[in-house]
Amino acid sequence: MNALDTTSIDFLEGLDDEKTLPLSGEQIDSEDYVFGLDDLENLAQPQYAQPTQNVKPIYTPQPAVPNTNSLLFDSFLDETDVRLRDVVDKVFRRSDRSFVIIRDDKIEYANNMFLKLLECANIDEILHQKFLKFVAKEDWDFLAKNIGEMLTKNESMEINLVSGAHKIIKAKFDAMYLFDKQHFTFILIGERMGMKTASALSMYDQVTGLPNFYLFEDRVQVIVNYEHYKDVRQKRNMVAVASVAIDNFAALKSIGLHELVLKKLAEKLMLTLRKTYTVGSGLKYHFWILLPDVMDEESLKVELSKIQALFREPVADNFTTHEISASIGVSIFPDPATSAKKLIEQAILSLQKAQKEGGNRMQIFGL
């Protein structure tokens, strides 16, 4: 028998039957607990080891219960190797809505619907390209000024895209910001879109019912071509284009009256101006007016004064009237504008000059 066994036996033989071992490292009097042989033989009986007086329990702190869901999620992240691009592609590849991720103005991802929309056969044709490359130039400023409201106020926005075949496609997008410490990243999710030539409805503005800018632009081209190539024995008439911007449009929009005002102004223009004129709804600017067959400068000034007077009249709803401030830019063919394109460009420049000079005025290009 080794030393340990001898010590153990000596210890057991030396125990006093009336003494008990200390509990939990504390010295406790033997009178506190009384053990009997019957009790030891019947451990299941409730009278076993009954204290003769109340004993204060010793508090043992319980370990905090872990958040099972959090642990499982952390474990999932630790053990999973998933690329966001692959996940996004699996979800949106065959979606019937266009889905585009843009980082610092460049396209980082586009699904099949967006490629089909732009008539691109390969993702490499648009990947890492600037998004504005596929947006009509007339919408660049509009997009830049309104992307913030799309992201913060959950508003949709209509913009015009340019396909590989140089077709104009009207698209309606929702935007969602992606948290990124180093880049400005957001997602554009677009509704199904139709080509400009797909239906007659796409050629007219949904709010006013007027021809949209692209139909208006086509009519300007037709009129200019007619004047440019008419028989030399016929007199060449002047053609004028007026672009109109409502200076206080933002204030009207803030009180929810912007669409009402546009409808009322469109009605007045259609009912008041000559039937040979074309009134269109603009992209960046609210109205476009084509004045064909202008006999001379004096006749043009008379017609322009009528247009200006219409926008100076207040617009009334069921309860009150609303003052309108409008800037108007005018260009004239064949001098100084020599083409339909120049006619529209010079009208825009004139309008911008009117706005810079305080607004609520008319500016004729070259004057």
Walk me through what this model shows:
- This protein has two domains: 84-199, Beta-Lactamase, CATH 3.30.450; 204-364, Alpha-Beta Plaits.
- The model is unreliable at 17-35, 43-49 and 195-201 (pLDDT under 50).
- The strands form three sheets. It has a five-stranded antiparallel sheet. The protein has a five-stranded mixed sheet with strand order 7-8-6-11-12, sandwiched between helices.
- It contains eleven helices and twelve strands.
- The chain is globular.
- It has helices at residues 3-13, 37-41, 68-79, 84-92, 112-117, 140-153, 213-229, 249-254, 258-272, 297-312, 340-356, and strands at 98-103, 106-110, 157-162, 168-178, 185-190, 238-246, 278-281, 287-294, 315-316, 321-322, 326-333, 362-364.
- It has 367 residues and is of the alpha+beta class.
- Helix 11 (340-356) links the parallel strand 11 and strand 12 (362-364).
Number of separate helices = 11
Report the end-to-end length measured between terminal Cα atoms: 123 Å
User: Class by helix and strand content?
Assistant: alpha+beta
Radius of gyration equals: 41 Å
Q: Outline the low-pLDDT stretches.
A: 17-35, 43-49, 195-201
Helix content: 25-40%
Q: Architecture of the largest domain in CATH?
A: 2-Layer Sandwich
Mean pLDDT: 78
